[in-house]
Amino acid sequence: MPTVKRDTYTPDSLLSVAVRVFNERGYDGTSMEHLSQAAGISKSSIYHHVRGKEELLRRGISRALGGLFGILEEPRAVEGRAVEQLEHVTRRTVEVLMTELPYVTLLLRVRGNTDTEVWAMDRRREFDQRVAELVKRAAAEGDLRSDVDARLATRLLFGMINSIAEWYRPDRAGSNGAPNDTSAEVAEAVVRTAFSGLRTH
Amino acid sequence: MPTVKRDTYTPDSLLSVAVRVFNERGYDGTSMEHLSQAAGISKSSIYHHVRGKEELLRRGISRALGGLFGILEEPRAVEGRAVEQLEHVTRRTVEVLMTELPYVTLLLRVRGNTDTEVWAMDRRREFDQRVAELVKRAAAEGDLRSDVDARLATRLLFGMINSIAEWYRPDRAGSNGAPNDTSAEVAEAVVRTAFSGLRTH
C-alpha cells in the first residue's frame, strides 16, 4: 500500500491523475480505490474535491470538448471559403488532439451507459456533424472532388486524425532517436495528405 | 442456460463464433464458458475441435494475416513503379479489411502477453513495415511529395484504412437507408483521398 501523502491536489492536478488512470484501465474498470492509490491520497480526500468518479469523467471530457468546440469559433473556421475553414478545422483538431492528448483520448474511447458517457458521445457526434457540414459546403462550392462521397470523406478525415492518439506519445522521442514531431508539423502533414494527397502532381 | 445443441460445427464455423465473442468481450475477457454458451455446445465439444481459446485466437489471426500478406504477393503489388504498387496494396488492404472484418478487427485489437498475441503483434508490425518500405521507395522514385515524412505518411495511411473497422458494419444499411458502400467503392475513395487529396485541382 502506497504511503498516503498530504493532499496538495488542485482540481486540475487531481483531474490529470484521474484521466491517466481512466485511459489505462478504462472508465468502467476504474474504482475510487484505484484513483486513491494513483493519487496517493485517501478516498475521503478525493471526495473533498469531487462527488465521485463520474464528475472526474465529466470534467475530463469537458476539457476535450472545450478545446474542440473552441476551434469552431476561431475566425479562420468561420470566414472565407468552406474548404479553407475545413482545412483550418482539420489542422487545429490535430493540434488540440496532440496538446490535450489524455483528455481527447478519453473522449474518443468513451462507450457506455451513464448519463455522462451518453452526453459525451452525443457531443462528440455533434462535433463530427459540424465538420461533416463543412465538408458538404466545400463540396457544394466545388472545392472538393465529387467522386468521394461527403459522408465517407468526413469519416476518412476523422479516421486519419483520431488515429494519431494511437501512436503519439509526447514524452517519447521518435524510434530513430529524433525528437517527436511537433503538433504543428503533424497537423500540416495531415492537411497536405488529406487535401492535396501524397502523390506529386 | 441455453439449450445445448448437437455439435454440428466445422472448424470454420466454430472459429467464426469465437472471433465474434473475442471482438465483443475482448480476448482476455472471454472464457471457454463464454464460447460454449455462444456456440450452444458443451466445452468438451469445443475441446474436440481445438486445444483451447488460444488456438482459436491463433486461427482467427492467421486468417486475417493470410489475407493481408497475400496482397503483397499479387502481381500488381510487385510490378511497376512503387507508387502504383502502394496504391494497389492500399486498395486491397481496405477490401480485405471489409470482407474479412471480424478477423482483421481481432488482429487490430490484439494487445497482450500470450505467445500468440506477441506473435500477432510482430506479424502486424511486419506488414506495416513492408508497406512503409513501399512508401519509402515511392518517395525515392519521386512519386510522393517530399514535404510529408515517409514514416508519418505510412501512419496516416494506416490510420485512415484501419479506422474503417470502427464504423463499417456489413449487415447494416447506411443511416440514409441506402445500402452500405461496397468494399471496392470505399477502397477507391481511400486511394483517391490519400494519394490525390480531397481538393479539386
From TrEMBL, chains A, B:
Residue ranges the UniProt entry marks as DNA-binding: 31-50
Domain HTH tetR-type: 8-68
Keywords of the record: DNA-binding, Transcription, Transcription regulation
InterPro entries: Homeodomain-like_sf, HTH-type_TetR-like_transc_reg, HTH_TetR, KstR2_TetR_C, Tet_transcr_reg_TetR-rel_C_sf
Protein name: TetR/AcrR family transcriptional regulator
